[in-house]
Amino acid sequence: MKLDLITSLYVFMLAAFIGFEVIRRVSPLLHTPLMSLTNALDAIAVVGAIILAGEHKSQLAAILGTIAIVAAPATSSAASSSPIACCACSNPAGPRDHNAHRHADRNHLSRRTVLFILSLKWLSSPTTARHGVWAGEIGMALAIGGTLLYRGIVDYKLVAIGLVLGCIIGVPLGKVQMTAVPQRTALSHAFGALCVTLVGTSEFYLRAPNIPPFMMAVLSMEVILGSLTFTGSLMAAGKLQEILPQRPITYKGQNFVNLGMLALAVAVAAMLVIHPEQIKLFPAMILIPLIFGVMLVIPSAARTCPR
Predict the structure, then answer these.
(1) How many Å apart are CA 294 and CA 140, to the nearest integer?
(2) Cα 159 from chain centre
(3) Which residues, at least 6 apart from 268, have a Cβ–Cβ distance to it below 8 Å?
(4) Which of 220, 233, 259, 290 could make an S-S bridge to 269, C-beta 3.0–4.6 Å?
């Protein structure tokens, strides 16, 4: 368990460093395609949704997983998935076949990871930006194929329904005028955050109350950030589309209230890390960030909304 924790932290830090070094060199002229591509890669969270819907371990997990599958392709305007789950595949044929299968999965994982990194790297120059977009799309296509081969999936019906519905929603959203790209980006953030929140919620109810502290902390961070990003991005999209009031809405002590709500959500998360058997606290950890996301955006005018 300790080795898994150290490995996870190492991968997280390495990914953060690579992402920072690659993205910080992107020209300001390419920030719009960069946001579009990173939104598409963000939909990689659909791997958890596909596994949840396909394994069908519980009715709740299957339903939430299917909804998350719909949200993720709507984020990327194409069905996407993650290669990570393939490393967990099992092969009853024997140790030799199992090891060979795992070796092939690692090779596929390496290829997809390289494509994702190159897709961001190539966006640093206008001459290679088109190659970057293609590399990202190929990487996501390989990822979804690899995840769908995961042997733990026993029911492909819900997975197929979710992917088809997500593409039906996402493809038209991708065909917008350039002037509407900020709204489209905000909606992409919202759909991706919804996918992450639903996956985290399903994982909690599947594993509770026997959840290790580290995993509970990760799930809490996932749900809090996903929830506040979902409502905050929807608010931003509404303001940018001029559906919601354009003027800022402010009141005395607003920052104190917002920080208080965030602190309360973190306190609930800390309580769940210590006492994961307190399942009744989990809905509060979702509801508070949902409200916080709305309260965070209403002080902003439409032209200054987060995008």
Answers:
(1) 31
(2) 17
(3) 281, 284, 285, 288
(4) 220
**Which of 71, 31, 33, 25 has the alpha carbon at shortest distance from 52?**
71
Under a CB-based contact definition with an 8 Å cutoff, are residues 193 and 48 in contact?
no
The more confident residue out of 17 and 51 is 51
Nearest to 38, CA basis, from 20, 50, 62: 20
SS3 string, 159-208, reads HHHHHHHHHHHHHHHHCCCHHHHHHHHHHHHHHHHHHHHHHHHHHHHHHC
**14-38 as b/e: b if 16+ CB within 10 A:** eeeeeeeebeeebeeebeebbbbbb
**CA-to-CA separations, 121 to 18, 76, 175, in angstroms, rounded:** 10, 19, 25
141, 41 Cβ separation under 8 angstroms: no
Taking 80 as the threshold, does the pLDDT of residue 140 lie above it?
no
User: Which residue is it, tokens 């979804």?
Assistant: 144
pTM confidence score: 0.73
